[in-house]
Amino acid sequence: MMFVGKGQIDVRDGAFVVIDKNGERLHIPVGSITCLMLEPGSRVSHAAIKLASACGTLLIWVGESGVRLYSAGQPGGARSDKLLYQAKLALDETLRLKVVRKMFELRFDESAPERRSVDQLRGIEGARVRKTYQLLAKQYNVDWHGRKYDPKDWNSGDITNKCISSATSCLYGISEAAILAAGYAPAIGFLHTGKPLSFVYDIADIIKFETVVPVAFKVAATKSNQADRDVRIACRESFRKTKILKRLIPLIEEVLSAGEITPPEPYEDAQLPAIPEPESIGDDGHRSG
Fold first, then answer.
1. Is residue 288 part of a domain?
2. H or E segment at 200?
3. Do 195 and 223 have their domain in common?
4. CATH number of the CATH domain containing 169
5. At what angle do helices 93-108 and 118-139 cross, to 10 degrees?
6. CATH number for 17
7. Using an 8 Å Cβ cutoff, are 36 and 1 in contact?
8. Residues 19, 95: one domain?
9. 271 falls within a domain
10. 89-107: per-residue pLDDT in tens?
11. Predicted confidence (pLDDT) per residue in 17-34, tens digit
12. Which residues of the chain have pLDDT under 70?
């Protein structure tokens, strides 16, 4: 994957090329790129979109360092095998519980209690989360009266809650980008369900207390008049320094592998396309023209 910003993406000699305002070019070999993260200031030519389609390269329009996700060139998951795999894990209660237990283990660095349902694990998780917020508030000397916010009324929350909301929004952006880049569906969650970003919340929750939530409390302690902006900038710099995107995709795979199944095979009576698809130079399962 590669982040591209402040340049025109075009095609020269069958490869992507980024041209900056001075006319200087950076060639990007098609065979080595599966995803281009397009940051502010980037523009994409028709020829580049056509090449991306032909080689199965995913285009994702993001904020700087992925703190926002605006759109994706192949929305909804380009890998049918991975979508079926994810759906099978989510629809089978036994497999779903295995995945949720793995999320618990990764989040708290210990095995989940035995013989607990998903709802019971959610309750244990909620109690620990509330305790963690209290500890962070004490560490950063911030007044804390609980996680309270109204999505429809931004100004109803105190500065700490606003900072936390801004920080988690940044993490959701880069988490959704990772899920799409890996070929999965943001909507098929395990702890969270029924929302377009259910799986995004699942993955982001695993790491938010070691990544963006401390950033939120640190900014809240400054009592800044533009706290939400300061949080977004701090998260952006943190994402750049820690290269969080490299960690997220292996984390997604590790979570789902807890189900201990392989992607389901097509049914024996499944019908092939009436018009054969052209040979793709992209990964198996990615759309191409």
1. no
2. helix 198-207
3. yes
4. 1.20.120.920
5. 20
6. 3.100.10.20
7. yes
8. no
9. no
10. 999 999 999 999 999 999 9
11. 999 888 878 888 877 778
12. 74-79, 277-289
What per-residue confidence (pLDDT) applies to 201? 97
Residues 23 and 130 both lie in one domain: no
Distance of alpha carbon 19 from alpha carbon 50, whole angstroms:
18
Is 276 a domain residue?
A: no
Query: By residue range, what is the domain housing residue 19?
Result: 2-62
> Do 20 and 163 fall into the same domain?
no
Pairwise CA distance, residues 169 & 185, whole Å? 18
Q: What is the value of pTM for the model shown?
A: 0.84
**Do 101 and 33 reside in the same domain of the chain?**
no
Residues 6+ apart with CB under 8 A from 243: none
- Cα 163 to Cα 143, 225, 269, distances in angstroms: 13, 11, 53
Q: How far apart are CA 189 and CA 89, in angstroms?
A: 10
Claim to verify: residue 233 and residue 147 sit in the same structural domain: yes
Pairing of strands 25-28, 35-38: unpaired
Q: Where are the beta strands (DSSP E) in the chain?
A: 2-4, 7-12, 15-19, 25-28, 35-38, 42-44, 58-62, 69-72
**Are 85 and 40 within one domain?**
no
Query: Quick one: pLDDT at residue 168?
Result: 96
Q: Please give the Cα distance from 3 to 191 (Å, whole number).
A: 30
Residue 52 and residue 91 share a domain: no
Tokens describing residue 57: 């390269």
Distance CA 49, CA 51 (A): 5
Please give the tally of structural domains in the chain: 2
DSSP 143-166: ----S--BTTBGGGS-HHHHHHHH
CA 162/CA 205 separation, integer angstroms: 17
Burial category of 235 from C-beta neighbours within 10 Å (exposed 0-12, middle 13-18, buried 19 and up): buried
